[in-house]
Design a protein that fits this description.
By secondary structure, chain A is mainly alpha-helical. Chain A contains 14 helices and four strands. Chain A has a domain of about 220 residues. Chain A starts with a helix and ends with a helix. The chains are: A mainly alpha (about 325), B mainly alpha (about 300), C alpha/beta (about 240).
Chain lengths: ~325, ~300, ~240
Amino acid sequence: MTRHTKIYWAGFAVLMAVLIVAPLVLPEFWRRFLTEVLIWGLLAMSSDLLIGYTGMVSFGHSAFFGLGMYGAAAALLMVSPPNLWLAIGFGLIGAAGAALFVAYFSTRLRDIYFAITTLIFSQIFYVIIFTWTKVTGGENGLIFTRPHFSIPLLFDIRFTSTTLHWFVLAVVTGSYLILRRVTQSPFGMVLQSIRENEARTRAIGYPVQRYKIVSVMLSGIFAGLAGVLYAVQNEFAAPDFVYFVTSGDTVIFNVLGGIGTLVGPIVGAGFFQLLRELMSRVFGEQFPYLIPLGFIFIAMIIFLPQGLLGFARRWLNK
Amino acid sequence: MDAVIGFIQAIPLDLLIIQTVNGIVTGMILALVASGLTLIFGIMDVVNFAHGELFMLGAYLGVIVVAATGNFWLGLIMSALVVAILGAALQVVTLRPLIGRDPLNTILVTFGISLILQNYALWQFGTVTRKITEPISSYFTLFYLQYPWYRIVVTGLSAAIIGGFWLFLKYGKFGVWIRATTQDRVMAQAMGIPVPWVFTGVFAIGAAMAAASGVLFAPLGGVAPTMGLDWVLKAFIVVVVGGMGNLGGSILAAILISLLEAYASIWVDPSRAVIVSFVVLILTLLFRPTGLFATPK
Amino acid sequence: MNAPAPSSEPLVQVENLHTYYGKSHILHGVSLHVGRGEVVGLLGRNGVGKSTTLKSIIGLVDASQGQVLYEGQSIITTPAHRLARRGIAYVPEDRRIFRYLTVMENLRTGLDRGGVTEERKAALLDKVFTFFPVLAERRGQAGGTLSGGEQQMLAIARAMMLEPKIILLDEPTEGLMPRMVSQIAQIIELLHNENVAILLVEQNVPLTLAASQRIYIMEKGCVRHHCAASELDVHHPLIKQYLGV
């Protein structure tokens, strides 16, 4: 074991310990807050695979998140009693489908055009969900009950906010470990090579578009997983989440926290939500917190483009 | 095939013509918005996410000036001027530092600007839709409708602005500077052309075009802080369909998409008619990803 | 007109210039100078850094170390477009005229400067059309439709529009027919007679030796030899050493 590995896993263990104990000592509001930060963090982390590792900025994550959410909603409404695993399954399939659709068209175009077309496609999904009232509940969305955590024939427990937090933590941590493996695998190396110099990667002989499609799909699946978790936690699905704003927020978390670090975006999500909470407490609910946050965002791009955790980027990826 | 022809023949001619006129009206406004966007992208390689917000701000400024002076045309000119200056300031402060960096940074920064502008508008003006009364309230009879002259005027004005700009590009001194900078940024500098200021100027012009469209559109649709996003989305579609950086293509694409949407509105709810533009986009990406009207240049 | 500076002070002075391209060290401490109205030749094989030297002077390439002085003042951080207006004109390798602008518009990019009266502009155009009658004929045509030789003339004419004190000429005869090569030699002489300094980068040794007063020879990013042009001829051992195959 290298020294780096030891420190890394020690740090990881400490962080996990803190996050596991947290719900036991925090008041209800902050408990839910922390869980939501983890969910948004997962969404942002999924986006990091594209932005930080493949070099593609996506404004379409609201679609993947939203379809994960609505997929879960469908499962939870169709089957009685509501089944957690079915919800996850439906959500992932929905998100994967959206990702495949978006990937097929958007990956034909490079860079800037990719960003624009992901934006347009996610708005297409928004319009469809918003107007197809019969299936999606339109403007009002869907309401359902939270499923139990059950494994057939073994046990069946209801979620409390604490146990739900642990479940979310487990899913997010698992996702992080999987994504970390992916970025460090040969596949991940090709993605990074695409980010560094796409033309050269293609010249060497890699089917770049195929790699991009897989990257978008992986990213979309984990974003969908975040959507499922959100649905399970909040017991509703609404078209607002499929609206562009969610994609925009995701990109903000990425830039704030530091792209290409996987953990950075989670920190970015936390930083954003904390600032927002702080501002609403100090200045009142109506205060347009996005204005100062917007300034911070722009300042970061100009002066600190590597983000809050950017300094640790190489270390986190070793 | 016969069924299709029969279907088309069943549409009353007057309805078809009315929708054609409507399509051209919105098409020209959209063309003006998209022109500004294409300009900024074609010359500076910047995707201006905040373009819709500049459109929205222009509309609000129009509301304010018209409320204060009662003169619509003054509102139009002042709005364009103020937003041009704002655009120049934004470019100098946030975009100039990014020249030479990965162009993706400019998308992020303009996105940040759009956030700030949109939330500022929400905060200052609230969610209630404002209106500007049309400067010309006379009508003419188009079949069974009383059709507002103002709509025709808007079309003409948009075309005039675009045309005027095209002439400026072709014959004016700054037009030559802009074209030289677009073709070869390095040699333009070597010839003494102050390229950083050319960029600022171009951004200001694009912003002014967006603002003017906003004011022109305001009497037709009302002014709300969120109007920017819908328009910029359509403008992006237009720009991709018309060919990035292709001014003529953007105009044609804008009119095409608006016409198709106007025709679609004959059968479906206008909020669903927008799907037409998505279909056109998807088809373009499938078969002519460089743009339907892309010419080699 | 400005009073001419004492002829002892060089117009352009490059001191110990170092540049990098990414991690590659291109210029390893280049030093040279060009006096007012002088024609100075810069010889060397491909890739030794001649073009980079020119680009560093006009500010299109950043230097990591060293100094570039123009009329005694440091210009190392001055942006290219300001230098062009202060009298440094650059005619690059492969000409790089604006292909989609007409000949006239190409000339206008240099002509339309602040503080130049209409009469002076007309006089400048006249002069350039006298130097290059073929450009007068083709003034409404797009730059890209001109032949190689005509484009080279346009590139030089365009530079003349700036009324420069020094022209940085990068391989003007490359790819030209022999007849055009002698025309370039004539143009260089005409410019020299107008007291315009020229820093001439060339592969054509006889033309350079004939046109220049002094010669610098470069190899691997620095100046290896410096002497009067009269001291060299085509068969000189140094020429064979630094430019031979």
